[in-house]
Write a structure and sequence with these properties.
single chain, 234 residues, mainly alpha, globular
């Protein structure tokens, strides 16, 4: 494991600029742009088709734009394999117990509320489970971890590690819920935002502790795989 909160391989300046410039595109503009493009071309895009283009586009941008950094970060994974595994296990334990405590607190405070994003994703899984498994377990974790942990957490960590945690955790929650805000009342919106706090905490911790972006990528994939398995079982 890395010492003194060393994040290991650092993004180059052009990659940091690319990441911060692409972040608003990823959050707000790309989905809207894909819908507009389908309309201009006269194509009828189903939610699954639109999400397929969205996930694949983001994955392509991340792989092409951050390939050199991902390779350098991968060396930290191979050189400290057992420390990687230890951090991964502890990170999952941190996520699990934080999630358990928070879910109990949310139930006591808010009562039973719907997890809106999970319902939407569950509908897409029902439509095409194989394709959604690819997106949720492979493409989304790499994309989100590069942008949120690699770019946001990594950039702010140089300034203040606590700021890096707060900003990345809040942004991670926001990115999963903001598109539903119009349809939600305030209490339900807050409830849905809180659902992603445990993952945001654990993913940031695993990145800082392991010194390689691949640790939160793998943990994120595991978390999504479990959620996917639950959706398939229901």
């Amino acid at each position: 494991m890395k010492k003194n909160h060393d994040l290991g391989a650092r993004l180059s300046t052009p990659q940091v600029i690319l990441g911060w410039c692409y972040l608003p595109v990823y959050l707000f503009l790309l989905g809207w742009g894909i819908q507009k493009l389908f309309g201009i071309l006269g194509l009828e895009g189903s939610p699954l088709m639109l999400n397929s283009v969205f996930f694949c586009t983001n994955f392509a941008v991340v792989v092409l734009g951050f390939a050199s950094w991902l390779k350098r970060s991968f060396r930290s994974f191979t050189e400290h394999f057992w420390a990687f595994i230890q951090t991964l296990i502890l990170g999952f334990a941190l996520y699990y117990f934080t999630q358990l405590i928070l879910s109990t607190a949310l139930m006591l405070i808010f009562g039973e509320k719907s997890a809106v994003n999970n319902e939407v994703v569950g509908g897409l899984v029902y439509e095409n489970s194989t394709l959604m498994a690819l997106f949720l377990i492979l493409l989304a974790p790499l994309t989100e971890e590069v942008l949120i942990r690699g770019v946001v957490f990594g950039s702010l960590h140089k300034v203040n590690r606590y700021l890096a945690y707060v900003a990345s955790i809040l942004l991670f929650s926001f990115m999963h819920v903001w598109q539903y805000f119009v349809a939600l009342d305030f209490v339900t919106a807050v409830y849905n935002l809180c659902l992603y706090l445990p993952a945001g905490i654990a993913l940031g911790w695993t990145y800082e502790k392991s010194g390689t972006i691949w640790c939160p990528v793998v943990l994120h994939a595991i978390i999504n795989a479990i959620a996917y398995g639950v959706m398939i079982a229901l």
